[in-house]
Amino acid sequence: MAIQIQNVRFTYPDAPTKCVLDIPEWSLSKEEKIFIHGPSGGGKSTFLNLLSGMLFTHEGSIDVFGHPLHKMNNRQRDQFRADHIGYVFQQFNLIPYLDAVDNIKLAAHFHKDGEKVDVSHYATELLTSLNIPADNWSKPVSKLSIGQQQRVAIARALINKPELLIADEPTSSLDKRNCEDFMAVLFDLIEAHKITLILVSHDLSISNYFNRIEALSDLNLVAKGDDQCS
Amino acid sequence: MFLTLASKSLVNRKGSVLLTILAMSVSIFVLLGVEHVRYQAKESFSNTVSGVDLIVGARTGSLNLLLYSVFRIGAPTNNISWNTFKNIQKKSDAAWVIPISLGDSHKGYRVLGTTKEYFTHFSYGKQHRLTMQQGVAFDQVFDVVLGAEVAAKLGYQLGDKIVLAHGMAATSFSLHEDKPFQVVGILSPTGTPVDQTLHVSLQGIEAIHVDWKEGVHSANSDKPMTLDEMNNLTPKSITAFMLGLKSKMKVFQTQRMINEFQQEPLIAILPGITLSELWQMIGMLENTLRLISALVLLAALLGLSAMLLASIRERSHEIHLLRVIGAPPRFLFFLIEIEALLISLLSIGVGMSILYSSLLVFDGYLTTQFGLYIDINFLTKSNLLLIAIIVLSALIAAAIPSFKIYNRAKSSV
Prior knowledge:
Chain A has helices at about 45-50, 75-85, 100-110, 120-130, 145-160, 175-190, 215-220; strands at about 5-10, 20-30, 35, 60-65, 65-70, 85-90, 165-170, 195-200, 210-215. By secondary structure, chain A is of the alpha/beta class. In chain A, β7 (about 165-170), α6 (about 175-190) and β8 form a beta-alpha-beta unit. Chain B folds into two domains: about 1-45 and about 280-410, no CATH class; about 55-270, no CATH class. Chain B is built from 14 helices and 17 strands. In chain B, strands 1, 3, 4, 7, 8, 9, 10, 11, 12, 16 and 17 form an eleven-stranded mixed β-sheet that branches. A two-stranded antiparallel sheet of chain B has the order 2-15. In chain B, a hairpin with a 3-residue loop joins β5 and β6 (about 130). In chain B, α2 (about 15-45) packs across α12, α10 runs parallel beside α14 and α12 (about 330-370) runs antiparallel to α14 (about 400-410). The chains are: A alpha/beta, B alpha+beta.
């Protein structure tokens, strides 16, 4: 199993009585690609943040590739995220004043072997397979088009050879052509590297890439009207 | 990677960063400048005279006597008669005496009338004797020995003829044109007012004033003096004299004897004690200057802190992104600290360059106007310590925004 969740409940510390997430059971197999959709405010970000270890709950258990996130401390979860998870957002995926190569190297820096391995070769390999022209590699990424920025973001997310890629509305700021390009290169790469994918979006038009499609409301009991964390 | 991120982030915010660097540079310039000039001035003053037990002059303030006799600052109030000088020389247990006679100048440099004892007994710094760079001490009435700077600035060689002026102005109209002096010696540099002095014999001073009455040249002398007569002139008065005693034990006894001298009102001072009185007076001013420069630095550091704090707000996406790719909160803490370190190092570089160039520019001015010899090299041990303190204070000032970003990173989702 790639991910196994049992009896997870989550409340934000500033609103301890309002339950945001209540998932009795949920799992994902290795190399599976899942499309999750749902309205904004439905706990999507909370769900993804729990999987990546950005958020933490005492209630229930979250195992990601055999790592029990609910048993780790803050430092271990930061390191876990750097080593095992790639993350792509809708925007602000890159440090704007660094160039593409430096952005990728920065991500590699936090991997547990980041200081030892020379990632330049792999970085250029990724950028090439993502169709980023070589003369754009050393420009500040803020000078790149949105489509190119999102593809550089894939390279940044994959540099540490993660087992799991989480994409949070990755195509929402792209036009139709760029969106198709993005999905095409994304699927090429994750299939080539045998990566498990969770993609969250409200844009159902890209769901045809997936064979498992779920609404967040199907796994989160809170969305079904039960928002009391007892 | 860490440094790349920090430096490119600073370049990305160059507007506010440059202003902060500028503010810090100015404060570092002020702080190091004040410290350096203060230290050097003290050093330069303390090194000017050594081995002199007593300085004797007509009764005046002890500071005034020290300033005009040693530092060539200010004007003598009155002269001492030659008889008194001889009298005291006899009465005191003097190993040597150096009479000095001031009042004339050459192109703004002071002329000192004295005897050959000056070259053998006067010492500066840590008991350094005066040495000749070229030539010999004066022997004839119209011989002159130049200080190193006088020779260098005015381009004089041995054998050159020069004319002295009455009074101190650089453009004096009353020149002793009828009696030119010949350069017979040039002293080695000492880093004291000696470098800016022209030394002639007391007879020389007498000779050029032979036909002068009340500060004006009266040409109607009966018959011109022969050179031989001039060589044997006895001065009527001198400005002051320095005294070296055979036994240091008798310094206070001799001082009292001179201060109570009946025939003429005199004052004898111990140069070291008078110098420390001077430091006491200047000390207050010094501390005020130091306090002000420290406050200027504090203001600049607060500016640095405010700038970094403001930057955190505009970098919330950056913070979140770094967290997502696995940066622990302490990474962000040190990122801000490194930025502060880079800013303070750059400011120290700029501040020191400004200080260095202004020392180069004002070096000559300080020397000629105030008799201050300021070493260009300000990287003394205490200034290096000061620089280390500045860096440390910058890191402490940056701790406020660093903790802020640390906390924000911890709660960033």
